Hints:
Blueprint: H1 12-20, E1 27-30, H2 37-44, E2 48-52, H3 56-67, H4 70-85, H5 93-100, H6 107-122, H7 127-142, E3 183-185, H8 189-195, E4 200-203, H9 212-215, H10 217-224, E5 230-231, E6 236-237, H11 253-263, E7 268-274, H12 281-287, E8 295-302, H13 305-308, E9 311-312, E10 318-320, E11 326-335, H14 338-347
Parallel strand pairs: 1-2, 1-4, 2-3, 4-7
Antiparallel strand pairs: 5-6, 7-11, 8-11, 9-10
Amino acid sequence: MIKYIGSKRRLLGRILAAIDGVEGARSVIDLFSGTSRVGHALKRAGYRVLANDHNAYAHTLATCYVSADLDELRADAERLIAELQALPGRPGYITETFCEQARFFQPVNGAKIDAIRGAIADKGLTPELEAVLLVSLMEAADRVDSTTGVQMAYLKGWAPRSHRPLELRLPDLLPRAENGKGEAHRLEAAEAAAKLRADVVYVDPPYNQHSYLGNYHIWETLVRWDQPEAYGVARKRIDCRERQSPFNSKRRCGQAFAELFAAIDAPTVVVSFNNEGFLARDQLLALLGPWGEAEVIEVDYRRYVGAQIGIYNPKGAKVGAVSHLRNKELLFVAGRGAAAAAAAARAYVPA
């Protein structure tokens, strides 16, 4: 899957252990699905997953990894991936914007991305098959980019991986889950919470000022294929200035969280947060009050790589020092079966 600062790769085992500890749980809503790493793992474990995210690239990832089923799409996807891989490069918007005006990809790979994305758009595919091909392209581009993992900036010198040729691969599709076909939704989180129903709701919201749209604007443009006006050194989409989530605002996030939790109708809630977030631990516990006393699991981790190398201005000069290298991931479990779920999460031992 793509590099992602919000990924729960390191916490995934505990999250699954907690949900597995909820007796009788068969379905899970993932309200902020991101890369769908959690939804994909839950689907693999047999749960019916209802994934949601308001960004187009995240919705595409969920359509591929949660909604699409391997047994139905594999043959067509493999045939089309081979066809797309054989296309010659054709420079276009991606090459001009992210290889010439910026330096996220080598121009030869940018031209290949342009050619493949244009061909996908011309095929008129079903949403699930198109999502599989788009994810294949997204992940191929991610393997040859020149960043630290976010698209707020590119490296001063080319990353070694950027010199590799772009290579499409079949994404890690899964067969349909034992408990039913997954779904991918593109709604605001509170709207999804009010509309969707499942045994467990998993909440992994943005927790500080860093916008996922701004951090992954290239994927949004690649999926939407709208060739937007771009600005700044990183050539961000112009709507990064307008599509600002209240969860990324210290002033507005309290109300956004209150509305979100008020809309949730599920017997069990699992929340992933961070001690660097805008909300304090006690504030989250108060939001979970309607589900009874919540259990909290703390896990100590190194911060993401971008936080470890310091702060640089657009000219590449270091302008800020690293404040700290470790943080705490917090996993809250509340509602039916919370004690058993928390015990299972605490007992989890990474392989």
